[in-house]
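Sat 14:20. Reprocessing the chain from the morning session after the first attempt stalled halfway. Input below, unchanged.
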Amino acid sequence: MRAQDLANVTSYREWVLLGYLVCPDELLRVTSIDIALVVLKENLVLPLFRDEYILLHEEYQLYVLPRILETKRLAKAGRSKQKEADLEYSVAKQVEKVLSKVHEQALLSCDSIHHERRILLKQEIGRMVLFFSDQPSLLAPNIQMVFSALALAQSDVTW
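Finished this time. Tokens:
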């Protein structure tokens, strides 16, 4: 992963969360639920602008889960071919189960995930300070990595 990608990782997470909130049917793809699970476990709120934010898990329970339940009901009714309906039903059932449990998992694991991330960021930024104070001529070629570390630190502070 490039340093430029690391600087934008917070934006990627936010766009994943917003994308699945706006298009809940995309969660019915086989690999989508894994991506959503990882991102939902790490976040409780989604900042929009300054002090405006979304309570993620409430919004997912309010808007996404009913859509998944409707898809599950339609698949059970067999509106399409039987084999496709069975697959769609099983995926919808899995998504429903994951969305129901991810809030409790987030409450339990979110704090420890961010605590570990803060420790790692503190150590790495400390190493960068020591390294670049010893070798200031290497700062310019590695400035993108410094900005990436600072962006990650900022996102964790605002968390």
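Helices lie at 3-7, 9-22, 32-42, 56-77, 82-134, 143-158.
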